[in-house]
TrEMBL record:
It holds the Pfam family Oxidored_FMN. Keywords: Flavoprotein, Oxidoreductase. CDD domains: OYE_like_2_FMN. InterPro entries: Aldolase_TIM, NADH_flavin_oxidoreductase, OxRdtase_FMN_N. Transmembrane segments: none annotated. This is NADH:flavin oxidoreductase/NADH oxidase family protein. Gene3D superfamilies: Aldolase class I (3.20.20.70). SUPFAM superfamilies: FMN-linked oxidoreductases. Residues 5-338 form the NADH:flavin oxidoreductase/NADH oxidase N-terminal domain.
Length: 407
């Protein structure tokens, strides 16, 4: 009997997704110095398309050259980048794979040394150690808000022109849209701040602008279940926002959670009872399913075929979102369909030296090096020593490796 993971699913616009595997966004760090896609992107995404995923979401693509989340982000803001995007889309949509471009603006999650300034809903810097990594933000003006909204739409239009099959709005993990949603970070007194209807206006207007510029194009949203921060975005607010997105006609909602301040999406600070269910945000998805009927994807924590199947058959989620397993097994779905892989075990990547482990995101660095290997046509090194990855990163990327790569 075929696993439910390989059942197809039709979205509201009639698009059929061939299975329930959703390759979640991972920052690749593979762009050239002009922030354009490279041959490494084309090869990496060809591997994922051939590997059997139903939907593949890119690492976050920035909508403004002046607003990078980290070094080597791809930026899509003019048609000059179309030839690069067309090749990326051609390779990433092989075998009926859906390739969605994740569109993002970092807001105040812009690292020192990467951009000249950071903007945010309110001029509130990150506290403590986190704050030392980022630029101190200034409050974005109403005129700039409208410009950013237009930029999201323009980038989506270019993605459609290039042959991508959809876009995903990154509204999670503490980036600009997530900052607008959070009362912790958004303390504006105008139409863009206050109660949740005002705080979510930025996200809703971004969605509407993308629809205006792309028409009947697939548009998904990545949304936090909560920030897991005091005075932050709550589960109740997340459910309300998801309900409004459904009314707007969104095609899919990917559920995640946390931010740079509290990175729950990576498995940190997750309760043991949650880990046993594998997916970190499955309980929230079950609550959301009571009132929201748009297709859902839960990302974070899935490791076994049985755990994924249970999540689908329980109807808590329609798609299983995976990221790091795809860095080790680019053909993850094909291996599961052939019964050659039942579970993947991922160990934390640490040197055991606190001064380094606390300063450098070795997990992210290690997985990025695997993505780079795939992109260069090399095989994955699943047992690659962490200490060697540290020195390789230091040699290849210099100070860039000290600048956090995020999901």
């Amino acid at each position: 009997m075929e696993s439910v993971l390989f059942n197809d699913m039709s979205l509201s616009n009639g698009t059929i997704i061939k299975n329930r595997f959703f390759k979640g966004a991972m920052s690749e760090g593979l762009a050239n110095v002009n922030n354009e896609p490279t041959e490494a992107h084309y090869h990496l995404y060809e591997n994922w398309a051939k590997g059997g995923a139903g939907i593949v979401v890119t690492g976050h693509v920035m909508i403004d050259q002046r607003a990078l989340g980290e070094p080597r982000n791809v930026v899509v803001e003019s048609d000059a980048v179309l030839p690069h995007l067309e090749k990326w889309a051609e390779n990433g949509t092989l075998h009926g794979t859906q390739l969605w471009m994740q569109l993002n603006h970092p807001g105040k999650q812009a690292m020192k040394g990467v951009v000249k300034e950071a903007i945010a809903p309110s001029a509130i810097p990150f506290p403590g150690r986190t704050g030392r990594l980022f630029l101190e933000p200034r409050e974005i003006t109403p005129t700039e808000i409208k410009e950013v909204i237009q930029r999201f739409g323009n980038s989506a239009k270019l993605a459609k022109q290039a042959g991508f099959t959809g876009v995903q709005i990154h509204g999670a993990h503490g980036y600009l849209i997530s900052q607008f949603l959070s009362p912790r970070h958004n303390q504006r007194k105008d139409e863009w701040g206050g109660e949740i209807d005002a705080r979510m206006k930025f996200l809703i207007e971004v969605y509407r602008e993308i629809r205006r510029q792309t028409g009947n194009f697939q548009v998904g949203v990545k949304l936090n279940s909560a920030d897991f921060m005091k005075a932050g975005f709550t589960e109740e607010e997340a459910i309300y926002v998801a309900e409004q997105l459904e009314k707007e006609g969104v095609d899919l909602i990917e559920i995640s959670g946390g931010s740079f301040e509290n990175p729950t999406m990576t498995g940190q600070n997750v309760k043991e009872s949650t880990k046993k269910r594998e997916a970190y945000f499955l309980d929230f998805a079950e609550k959301l399913r009571e009132t929201v009927h748009v297709p859902l994807c839960v990302t974070g924590g899935f490791r076994s075929k049985a755990g994924m199947e249970n999540a689908i058959t329980s109807k808590a989620t329609d798609f299983v979102g995976l990221a790091r397993p795809f860095a080790i097994y680019p053909d993850f779905p094909n291996l599961m369909e052939a019964n050659q892989l039942e579970e993947v075990i991922l160990h934390p990547k640490k040197l055991g030296i606190k001064s380094i482990d606390n300063q450098i995101p070795l997990d992210s660095l290690w997985y990025m090096l695997q993505l780079e290997r795939i992109g260069r046509g090399k095989t994955v090194r699943a047992n690659h020593p962490v200490w060697l990855a540290f020195f390789e990163g230091l040699f290849k990327h210099g100070k860039e490796m000290f600048q956090q790569q995020r999901a």
